[in-house]
Automatic annotation (TrEMBL):
Protein name: Uncharacterized OB-fold protein, contains Zn-ribbon domain
TM ranges: none
Pfam family membership, one: zf-ChsH2
InterPro entries in the record: ChsH2_C, ChsH2_Znr, NA-bd_OB-fold, Thioester_dehydratase-like
Domain ChsH2 C-terminal OB-fold as annotated: residue spans: 58-116
Superkingdom of the organism of origin: Bacteria
The ChsH2 rubredoxin-like zinc ribbon domain, residue ranges: 25-54
Coiled coil segments of this chain: none
Organism field: Haloechinothrix alba
Length: 142
């Protein structure tokens, strides 16, 4: 067995299995081969056409805000306020996620362009980092 200890890069795991930690990180959906419907969870059959075959499809990292909600109250462990957005991705797919770094409604407008961003949401006892994703305003992410 080769000794793999030596490079102590922090190990990272995505917090959801549709977040792929490649370079750059991106989301991957299950696309129905019958009708191109996109699902983030694994399905036995397509809700639209009943098809049972799916392929993995990488989704665009860029999209536009369709709707947003500023959440002022959350569980004690969750910093509030935070902004929850629904994003229409450029090449299809709709994602609900948090808008990163922005909490004021004056900074948000419908149709605003955003880009995927990742952050470390927690570290376990072995030093493995749990990586989550959200979206940033494209003007902030430049
Ligand atoms: Zn389908």
């Amino acid at each position: 067995m080769p000794n793999s200890i030596g490079h102590r890069m922090p190990q990272q795991i995505p917090i959801v299995d549709y977040l792929v930690l490649s370079e750059p990180p991106h989301l991957e959906a299950h696309a129905c081969t019958g009708c191109d419907a996109l699902y983030f969870d694994r399905r036995n059959a397509c809700a639209h056409c009943g098809g049972t075959e799916f392929t993995r499809k990488p989704l665009s990292n860029e999209g536009r805000v369709r709707a947003y909600t500023i959440v002022h109250r959350a569980a004690p462990s969750v910093p509030a306020p935070y902004t929850s957005v629904v994003v229409d991705l450029d090449d299809g797919g709709v994602v609900k996620a948090n808008l990163l770094d922005v909490t004021g409604p004056e900074h948000i407008e419908p149709g605003m362009p955003v880009r995927l961003g990742t952050y470390v949401a927690g570290v376990d006892d072995d030093g493995v980092e749990a990586v989550a994703f959200g979206y940033r305003r494209q003007e902030d992410a430049a």
